[in-house]
Structures are given as C-alpha cells and as structure tokens.
Write a structure and sequence with these properties.
The complex is a heterodimer of chains A (240) and B (558). In chain A, 33% of the residues lie in helices and 15% in strands. Chain A has helices spanning 4-7, 35-39, 65-69, 86-96, 104-118, 134-140, 144-156, 178-184, 216-227; strands spanning 12-13, 20-21, 77-82, 126-129, 164-166, 189-191, 204-211, 232-239. The radius of gyration of chain A is 18 Å and the shape is globular. Chain B is of the alpha/beta class. Chain B folds into three domains: 3-187, no CATH class; 208-371, 3-Layer(aba) Sandwich (Rossmann fold), CATH 3.40.50.300; 384-557, P-loop containing nucleotide triphosphate hydrolases (Rossmann fold). In chain B, the strands form six sheets. In chain B, strands 15-16-14-17-18-13-19 form a seven-stranded parallel beta sheet. A six-stranded parallel beta sheet of chain B has the order 20-25-24-21-23-22, sandwiched between helices. In chain B, strands 2-1-3-4 form a four-stranded antiparallel beta sheet. In chain B, strand 9 and strand 10 (164-169) form a beta hairpin. The chains are: A alpha/beta (240), B alpha/beta (558). The interface between A and B is medium-sized, with 18 and 17 residues. Chain A: It comes from Thermoactinomyces mirandus. Chain A: This is ComF family protein. Chain A: Belongs to the ComF/GntX family.
C-alpha cells in the first residue's frame, strides 16, 4: 500500500527544518514549527513600535527613536511576523539565495495571518511588492517579494500588481551600513507597468517585502506610490 | 542562457552547442556541413529538440550569417580546455559550479570564452551536457540529473532566468539549485597512468583477527566482487582494518573514496586518515568545507558531496551504510553508484546490517566478511533494561527518578563519563534542568547537545577532552564517538527513534578501551519494546558466537 502514507501521512514536519512533529492540518503556521526552531524565534506581539513594527519589549504605543527622527509624512506603517534573528536569517537566505521557493508558502501564510490581524478594517484593496532589477532577477530566477505577495494575494483574494519598477541596479542592501542604505535607495524606484492610469486616490495599497531593516526601501516605494495618488500605503514584511 | 541546436547534413540526431562558431570550425575541419541551426532559450528547450526531434519554439538561424571561429582563437581555447579538463576530470557540476571552479583557480576566462572552452570539450567527447532537471514523460518520471532524484520534491515554478515555467529540484537545493534550464556538465574520467608513489608504511599494527579479516577482504576484492559487506562489531577497529587496503590502492595510483552519511564522522576521521596516509593527499568534503576546489585521488566525503563526482573512483568505502540519511534514500545510493568508475568496487562497512542484508549474507548473495570481536578481545557490554512509568512526567515535574539517580551514583563510583541519550531535542533541556534540581554537582559538569546546537562541535570536543562528565544528547552521537571511560543511559528507550540498530550502536559506545571495562549500558523506558529486547538479544548472540569460536581475548591479542 504505497499510496496509504500519501493520503494519511504518518506525521507532519516542521515547515522550516523538516523534523517530524504532531499538528492539525488546518493549524496556523506557528503551530507547525518544531519546538527547537520556535525556541530561537521572537514572535512580534503587542509590544512594538506602532509605526515600523519594531520589537520594543515592555513598551506600548510609543514611537521608536528611528521613526521619531523621520518626517511624519514619510512614514510607512509596517508590520512583521518575527524578529530577524540568526535562525530567521538562515531561513531567508535559504529562500532567497539557495532558491528554495517552496518556503514562500509558509512565509506567505504567516504574513497573511499578520495582515489579517493588524490591518483589519483598513480597507486594503491592492497588493504590490518591492521590485528587483531585471538583471538580478534573471540571475536569481525569481523575485522573493513577488512570490510572497502572490501567496498573500491568493489567501486574501486581493489582486497583486507590479506597481513599481527599479530604475537602477543597486548593490544588495544586506551588504551595506545604515547610512549607505538610507542613501542608496532614494530615487531607485519608478512607477511600473502595472500602475493604473485612472484615479486611485481611494485605494489603499499594501507593499510586501521579505526583510525590513532600516525601512529605506519600503519608504522609497511608499513615496512613489503616494506621488502617484494612492491614499494610504501599508507594508508587511516577514522579518523585522 | 542561450543555447543552440543543430543537425549535420545526412544525420538525424541533432547536437547541442554552447557556441556555434566553434562547431562550425570543427565540422568544417572534419569536412561536414551543417543542415540547420536553431537558437533555444535554455538547455531545456535544446534538450527537448534532441529528444523529440521537433524544434518547437526555437528560432531558426540562417547558416550563411554564422562565421566559423578563427584558428588562433580556437587554438587558445584548446589549450585552456586542457587545463580546465585536468581540474574537472570525473566531476558532475552545474553551470554555476563550473564558474566557481574557474574563478577559484584563477583561469582568467570570461563567460563567452568559458562557453567556447566547454564546447571544445563537448566536441572532443570529454564532457557531456544535460539539463539540471529532465522533464520527460509524466511528472513522476521527471528526474534531477544532478542528484538523480525522482519524486514530489521536483516542483515547477516560474523562472525569470529562462522566462518560462520550469522544474526545480528541491532535494539537492542546499548544494546549489538545479533547474531544468541550468546546464549540468558531466566530465568524463580518464584512466591516468599510475605513478608508483612510495609512501611511508602505516603507523598501525593489526591484531591477528583483524589481519585475517583484512586478508579475506583482499581476497574478495581480487575476485572482482562489485560489493562486499564488512560486518564488524562496534569497536572492532573498522577504520584501521581498511587502512592497509586504501593504502595499497592509492599506491597503485587508483582513486579511493571514503563516504559516510554523517558530517561528524568525516570531521573525526579526517585527522586520523591524514596522519595514517602520509604521502598521499587527503581531502575532506562536507557542507562548508574549504577543500571543495582541490583535486585529489583520495576523498573523504559525506554522501551528499558524492553527487558532484562522475565515474571517478576505483574503490569506494562506504562507512555506516545503514545510517540516516543514506539508508533508504534512493537518490544518495544512485549518486554513489554513479561516482564509481567502470569496474569499480564498493566496500560497505557497518556494525548493524539491516535484516535483509543479513539474509543476503546468509544466502551468499552478498559476499560478507564478519569481524565479531573487538580489537581488544573483550566481550560487548550487555544492555540492562529498566522500567519507569511516567518517566517524562516525573522529569518535567522534577520528581525523583530512582534509576537515573542510581546511574549517576555508580558513575561517580567508577569515575566514568556519561552519555545520556534522549529521543527528542526538547528532552535535552528537561534532563539538564532535572539534574540541576536533583544532582547539582553533576549539573555543573553537564552539557546538552543536539544536531542544530550552535556550539555542537565545540562541546563534543570538550567532552572528549574530559571537561564535562555528563553529556545529554539526541541520537546524533550514536555513532562514531569514542570516549574511553564511557557509561551510557538511554532515557525513553521505547521511542521509535531508538530502533534496534540505534540501540546496538549506542551500546557499542561503552567499553571501547581495553583498560576500562567498567562501563554500563542501561535502557530506561516506560515500556519494553521489541527493539530493546532484540538489541539485547543480538549483542548476547554475538558474544556467545565469539566464545564458541574461541576467538575471544586470548586469540585476538596475539
């Protein structure tokens, strides 16, 4: 009976490390992460910065210093699933650089849960993602933010549009210091081929990316979207 | 990545080309003409042109517009092709890996030139080109050419590299991505003329019984057996046993692979083999090894790394054949067979052959050499079974556990070092915190370790050096660990991860040193399982066999 275990698997495995564990099929992503992985995670709960979603243990509704420094009209509200710890870094690298595209599913599902919980009643009508430069995307074979956005869009029944495009090829943000990051991405983005011609001032758009570090990328995207008439811009990332 | 597909005049079968200019030059020299030529977007498309003899979406090129390469340029390529081939002989590499090799060895070749060089090798028949994943027939028949995997881990996804949907293999993804549009190169091995290398004699001496086993293996090898099973009990000195054979083959100028499924075993064996085989180059390959780009005749590798070889080795020693992840993984097994040179031989080393292998051995289907006695001739320690109901509840509530306390007590009396095995990773912490409560002086010298522990290697080394008395571990340490004053306790021995083989291996950690035989093996479980009883029975049988044959202590020591 070779087909038996394919219908009724003996056990399910952890989404990220494939060690066997118990769990219901319909459980949330967090419940399908093995205790060893979960031990090394910091899941973002209520004590976060209300703007950028940074983990701030012990405080509530106080804006973090980095957001305080910014011009209020430049801020983009961001929410993330987990803190960017070493293990999460490993996952993101496996996903992005090793190209294990199947990780888009648990990561996207998890981000969907975040969107449902944090942006309830915000009236998000459109999803877009942080674009990659054409040459880089050809090398890597896929755009990780696009994959995540597709999963989220499918879960939420919302359209995913390529509203943005990257004008210049920048070196990877992950290899820069804070100051360099903030400078590098200004004017890196332009309206893409998915940008609608008609008035979109009543629409609320959600930007999807994998990691939020300084937020420079997300803010640069947000600025372009606002310049093109979108009323409200939110963002969701996997790690913060 | 652009590729070309062409047919020669008067021939039905087509060819793939990386750079048609080289082909034009080559066939002009051979006095043949091209019939038609197409440009394909990826190796997948070019490959399907050959297989289906249909050109599909490939673009037709006009032959008149193509110019053959110029003579001096080709000469340069030929020269560089020789250098590249001498480095890559007998390897199976993806396109991006070939580029890494070129960069590492500073060949100063850009990508257009590299395509020309590889095309020269293809035309010379020194190299074969395939797509990373072959999409042919139904989905279940699709196969990753790199890791030879067929099954559900091959997925289709939109690919920006070739602009289509193509298949990607997630089975071997941690070693670099193999896609349907990624070219995969198999470099043919060449039979090098053996240079009689004189290496210093081995710094080891074998016991009489080991000597006999070794001679028997040599006899079987001379009979040209494809596979030989060497069944040696834990602590029999398998490594020492194989060294004379490895040395003999290396001295003859042949190529030898020592493969094992575990990285820990590679790390442990490497210094030992390097010391023993002075005079030969020894390299260790594992995930994150820095010797990846070194060619060598003797390779010590984890089984996954063997996917990067193609018909290279004359002799293959596969250590711990029955261990996870090798046993039962069709792809890894196929990889090992592919890395074997025509007429090559495999020696399978194990202390616990699976049941059906034992049957093969009995029916003489698989030539087998048995070494049932340890190198010092002492019997194997027999496991004792204990029962404790509600073990894990007691552990988490920090209530006293009689057997565990007694184990620690006798450990102190015998001045030993303990290995405490637990079934799951989360149990490691439970046991450590139990020790904190009930036995503080042991807690101070206790550490926990599991597969993904950040300091795993360091802690194990410190334990070997005697810094820690108690090491709480999952099954990662069931093999390949030698600590002279070892005592073993298995907590929760009823858990399915502790099958018969695992328990026999665990019991084999004890009493490996001739001058310390006081170590004990205790299995503590909530209930008796078949595995525990079978493990006990098997060890008992082996000891009885040794007694009956009279090859115990006295004989082995001669």
């Amino acid at each position: 009976m070779k087909w038996w275990p394919s219908l009724f698997p003996a056990f399910r495995s952890c989404w990220f490390c494939s060690s066997p564990m118990r769990g219901m099929v319909a459980a949330s992503v967090v419940e399908h992460i093995c205790p060893v992985c979960r031990e090394q995670l910091v899941i973002l709960g209520e004590s976060i910065c209300p703007i950028c979603g940074r983990f701030m243990p012990g405080s509530r509704d106080t804006i973090c210093l980095d957001c305080n420094r910014l011009n209020p009209c430049e801020r983009v509200v961001n929410r993330s699933a987990i803190v960017y710890t070493d293990l999460v870094k490993e996952w993101v690298q496996t996903f992005k650089y090793c190209g294990k595209e199947s990780l888009a599913l648990p990561m996207g599902n998890w981000m969907t849960e975040v969107v449902k919980k944090r942006y309830r009643g915000k009236g998000i009508s459109l999803i877009t993602y942080v674009p990659m430069h054409g040459e880089r995307q050809r090398q890597r074979g896929f755009n990780q933010a696009e994959r995540l956005a597709k999963v989220i869009g499918k879960n939420l029944w919302l359209p995913v549009r390529p509203l943005l495009q990257r004008k210049k090829a920048t070196a990877p943000q992950s290899k820069r210091t804070r100051q360099e990051r903030l400078l590098a991405v200004t004017n890196a983005f332009a309206p893409g081929k998915g940008m609608p011609d008609r008035d979109c001032s009543r629409q609320t758009v959600l930007i999807v990316d994998d990691v939020y570090t300084t937020g420079a990328t997300i803010r640069a995207c947000g600025r372009v979207l606002r310049e093109n008439g979108f009323r409200q811009v939110f963002s969701v990332t996997f790690a913060r | 990545m652009m590729l070309y597909y062409y047919r020669l005049e008067g021939e039905k079968k087509g060819c793939i080309s990386l750079d048609p200019a080289v082909d034009l030059w080559y066939w002009k020299k051979q006095g043949q003409r091209l019939d038609c030529i197409y440009r394909a977007r990826s190796v997948k498309e070019a490959w399907s042109c050959i297989q289906r003899k249909k050109t599909g979406n490939a673009t037709v090129l006009r032959l008149e517009e193509l110019q053959p390469a110029e003579e001096p340029a080709v000469r340069r390529c030929l020269k560089k092709a020789g250098t590249l081939f001498s480095l890559l002989v007998g390897r199976g590499l993806l396109w991006q890996e070939v580029i890494q090799w070129v960069e590492k060895h500073q060949l100063e070749v850009n990508s257009t030139e590299l395509r020309k060089i590889l095309q020269v090798l293809l035309l010379q028949g020194k190299c074969e080109l395939k797509p990373g994943v072959v999409q042919r027939g139904s989905v279940r028949k699709w196969r990753c050419e790199r890791c030879l995997y067929q099954g559900s881990e091959i997925r289709v996804s939109a690919c920006s590299t070739c602009g289509e949907e193509c298949a990607v293999c997630e089975h071997c993804i941690l070693m670099g991505r193999s896609r349907a549009c990624t070219p995969f190169f198999l470099f043919q091995p060449v039979w090098e003329k053996p240079d009689a290398a004189l290496s210093p004699p081995l710094p080891i001496s074998l016991t009489r019984y080991q000597e006999n086993a070794m001679m028997e293996i040599k006899r079987e090898l001379e009979k040209n057996r494809k596979q030989i099973l060497v069944w040696a009990v834990t602590g029999a000195g398998k490594t020492e046993l194989m060294l004379p054979i490895v040395k003999k083959w290396l001295d003859q100028g042949k190529r030898v692979l020592w493969a094992t499924p575990r990285k820990d075993v590679v790390l442990e064996l490497f210094p030992r083999l390097k010391a023993a085989l002075a005079g030969h180059r020894v390299i260790a390959l594992y995930g994150g090894s820095d010797q990846r780009f070194t060619p060598s005749a003797f390779v010590l590798a984890t089984c996954h790394q063997v996917w990067r070889f193609y018909r290279f080795f004359d002799l293959m020693i596969i250590d711990e054949v029955d261990a996870f992840p090798l046993y039962g993984d069709v792809a890894l097994e196929a990889g090992l067979h592919r890395a074997l040179f025509a007429g090559g031989q495999q020696i399978l080393l194990t202390a616990t052959p699976p049941d059906h292998w034992q049957r093969f051995a009995k029916n003489r289907k698989l030539p087998t050499v048995i070494l049932p006695v340890r190198y010092h001739g002492m019997p194997l320690p027999l496991p004792q079974l204990f029962r404790e109901t509600g073990l894990w509840a007691k552990m988490s509530q920090k209530r006293s556990i009689r057997v565990l306390a007694r184990f620690l007590q006798q450990l102190d009396q015998q001045h030993g070092q303990a290995l405490i095995f637990v079934p799951r990773i989360q149990d490691v912490h439970l046991v450590i915190s139990w020790l904190k409560e009930h036995s503080p002086h042991h807690f101070k010298k206790a550490k926990g370790v599991y597969s993904r522990h950040p300091q795993r290697e360091k802690i194990i080394q410190e334990y070997r050096d005697g810094k820690w008395t108690v090491l709480v571990t999952t099954t990662i340490l069931e093999r390949g660990v030698t600590v002279p004053r070892c005592h073993v306790l298995v907590l929760g021995a009823e858990h399915p991860v502790f099958d018969e083989t695992a328990l026999v291996q665990i019991a084999g950690r004890v009493g490996r040193s001739a001058n310390y035989q006081k170590g004990v093996v205790w299995f503590l479980a909530q209930e008796r399982t078949d595995a525990q009883r079978q493990a006990q029975k098997r060890i008992k049988k082996l000891n009885e066999f040794v007694q009956k044959e009279g090859i115990g202590q006295k004989g082995a020591y001669m």
